[in-house]
């Protein structure tokens, strides 16, 4: 697909070309914002952390209730407890404790990050559109046949579907480097993780409806550009001369 055109080829599940579909300009043709992408991916990874790592301080380590030896006349450094951080088996100083690493970013920023990720994949020609499909029963071999027909076997693939299909999810579950997600749940991390982004034809409308609100500014800029170009194309009319000037 050419980087400048808004249409993309739609493939059937056997790899044959069916028709073309227009990609929403406000989603797939925005200028990628690296700063916003960085924030979104950092948020996604932070929210995945369990935050359960823990160490014991000197007040939590077992033992140490008794002074190990007398204060003077031993030739050794004075000690009041065996739980001191400088001793073997003692407590940990400033060690990690369970905590919540998650944080949020504004919805508009999240939408912009997702649209930036979609646009990057479009610039890389890494988007494939397929006709809607469903399986009568879970069949991994049948799903592999689709990957072979689209010539994307062995790559990291993200499938965005318009609706939940248990058989499709189960068919792809055992294939390495393949993710299945609903179009409304698309996020910047999964999109950038993939080598190939596969969308069903009906999921494009869902993507546009879900992420369009953040692109109002982009649409205004595009409409202004179109308006200016149409004004420039119009022939300029010569100003009419008054009767006094003609005489």
Task: Outline the structure in words.
This protein has 2 domains: 7-48 and 106-225, Ribosomal protein L4/L1 (Ribosomal Protein L4, Chain: A, 3-Layer(aba) Sandwich), CATH 3.40.1370; 55-95, no CATH class. It is elongated. β4 (157-161), α5 and β5 (178-182) form a beta-alpha-beta unit. The chain has 247 residues and is α/β, with parallel strands linked by helices. It has helices at 25-28, 34-48, 107-123, 140-150, 166-172, 188-193, 203-211, 216-233, 243-246; strands at 7-11, 17-22, 127-130, 157-161, 178-182, 196-200. It has a 6-stranded mixed sheet. It is built from 9 helices and 6 strands; from the N terminus they run ββαααβαβαβαβααα. The mean pLDDT is 85. α2 (34-48) packs across α3 and α4 (140-150) crosses α5 (166-172).
